[in-house]
Amino acid sequence: MKVKICGIKTVEAAQHVVMSGADFIGFVFADSKRKITKEQAKEIADSLPSTIRKVGVFVNEDPEVVQEIASTVGLDYVQLHGDETPSYCEQIKVPIIKAFQVHSKKDLNKLERYPCAYYLLDSPAGKYRGGNGETFDWSLAKGLDHLKGKIMLAGGLHAENVQEAITEVSPVGVDISSGVETDGEKDPEKINRFVRAAKQTER
Question: What residue stretches are annotated with the N-(5'phosphoribosyl) anthranilate isomerase (PRAI) domain (predicted)?
């Protein structure tokens, strides 16, 4: 089970993510309380081992800006959380994780039109796209066997419910931000507990 810890803002928090055994680390470049600059992200990225994949999160950003930040920071993936179209995605030269807000079953009909590495199923947006700490009805994501190995799950996950979510959806990976925070900051103990719980399903 792949695990992505998103919304990393400091080198210290990034080191905790690496030590936890997570697979992806996420930097937010869109409006969010977790937003950082490309310079901050590059400093963090330069401190990471090559074993962890670096992901940049964007919302309706100019493709040239996305490309420039990806190049500067050395991103392995670009995660798109806005209203980006399939043709927009084709302009990005980095593997894409496209996020979809799941209100109903019909939200899943458009997945295959997108050229991307992973489809991230997330709960409907609050103030910001993603990172709201709310789950969606996981049963809606059943029947996506033809996309096996490409579905990632986000939205309201934490150490206590991640196994149930994995059993219900059978994703290749899970993505968390607020669920491993205490008072708005990444909590090393919560990160460790979440990664352990998510990866237990592999045993």
Answer: 3-196
CATH top class, domain 2-202: alpha beta
Helix (H) or strand (E) holding 77: strand 77-80
156-164, Cβ contacts within 8 angstroms, sequence gap of 24 or more: 156/123, 156/132, 157/194, 158/190, 158/194, 159/190, 159/193, 159/194, 159/196, 159/197, 160/197, 161/135, 162/194, 162/197, 162/198, 163/197, 163/198, 163/200, 163/201
Count other C-beta atoms under 10 Å from residue 78's C-beta.
27
| Helix then strand then coil, % of the chain, to nearest 5 | 35, 20, 40
> Domain segments of the chain: what residues?
2-202
The residues that are catalytic are 6, 122
Q: What's the pLDDT tens digit per position in 21-63?
A: 999 999 999 999 999 999 999 999 999 999 999 999 999 999 9
pTM score, two decimals?
A: 0.93
